[in-house]
Amino acid sequence: MRPIDISIVVPLYNEEAVFDTLIQRLTKVMDQAKFSCEVLLINDGSIDKTDQLIEKICEKDTRFMGVLLSRNHGHQLAVSAGLAYARAKQGVLIIDGDLQDPPELIVDFHELLLKGYDVIYAIRKNRKESFLKKLAYSAYYRLQKRISSFNIPIDSGDFSMLSRRVVDTMNDMPEQSRYLRGMRAWVGFKQIGFEYDRDERQAGETKYSWSKLFELAFNGIFNFSDFPIKFITRLGFLTVLFSFIYFVYNVYRKIMYNDVPQGFTATILAIILFSGVQLISLGLIGEYVLRIYNQVRNRPLFVIDKIIQDGKVKEEIK
Ligand code: UDP
Ligand code: MG
């Protein structure tokens, strides 16, 4: 068998509606490519027929490999499972299953990979999504850029090509709350953006609920930034400084004019203010403690139900 140059990782959660189109597009891309490919179809605990469709295509065409997770683990972990099983020598393409990202770009990405880039990440020129979502994304990416400890490119999603050594490094990163585009940027080496038009989802509904989206956004901020906790410390110092000035000012008024009221309002205000500050601080500390907790539990990232490789079902490989 020819060695595999590129692995294509596709996470799938209830995608039976796009499945056939997806397979057609991917097959065409593989037939035309000058390099050899495998496709890893990750079933992220779908409750429709996605798993059966995966098994069928894997038995028919051995370039397809199925990785069936035991339940829904979420997009980031589904992709992580794909990265763990990708066998390609040169690199891995990560792509959504709903065809919002054109798989045909693999040719351009592969060229850049051969030119020595380790990470080729796609930048969305425009988005065909609701106004509210666009606004939220744009605000989020800009906030993240301002406060991250290092540079995570704006408007780039998970759609990207990663070199073998980047994938190996990411596979060795044990963090539980995974934010792949942050981890990818963290690894370093030569990285380059590639602008493209993001299409609309070809069929079916979005599988990212607002709550999943919020979780992703939180991981992006808290996993890659110390800013929130540093901000709280600074706020604490400022508050102390302010109260000191306030105290000196009141002493001055008392001595010079003797007009300081027997303040009830001030007391209440102070109590509210400081309770607020404390609550925020506790919440933020909790954020980090939660992450420590998740990490020290050290669970495996995902659980595999079944692997279909080279047209055969395997319970365990590797
Ligand atoms: N996905 C997944 N597990 C999930 C949610 C989504 O594997 O829990 C997959 C989904 O099937 C798709 C990709 O991740 O291939 C991106 O999801 P989606 O298109 O729903 O997200 P959006 O583009 O709306 O942000
Ligand atoms: Mg989508």
UniProtKB/TrEMBL annotation:
- Can you say where in the cell this protein is located? Membrane
Keyword Transferase on entry: yes
Q: Which GO terms describe its cellular component?
A: plasma membrane
A Pfam family cross-referenced in the UniProt record is Glycos_transf_2
Instruction: List the SUPFAM superfamilies hit by this protein, alphabetically.
Output: Nucleotide-diphospho-sugar transferases (SSF53448)
GO MF, one example: glycosyltransferase activity
Which superkingdom, per the lineage? Bacteria
Q: Does the keyword Hydrolase apply?
A: no
Where mainly found? membrane
Location of the Glycosyltransferase 2-like domain: 7-168
Query: Keywords on this record?
Result: Glycosyltransferase, Membrane, Transferase, Transmembrane, Transmembrane helix
Record's bilayer topology term: Multi-pass membrane protein
**InterPro entries the record matches:** Glyco_trans_2-like, Glycosyltransferase_2, Nucleotide-diphossugar_trans
What Gene3D superfamilies does this protein map onto?
Answer: Spore Coat Polysaccharide Biosynthesis Protein SpsA, Chain A
Q: Which residues cross the membrane?
A: 231-252, 264-290
What this protein is called in its record is Glycosyltransferase
Q: Which organism is it from?
A: Flavobacterium psychrolimnae
Lineage, broadest ranks: Bacteria, Pseudomonadati, Bacteroidota, Flavobacteriia, Flavobacteriales
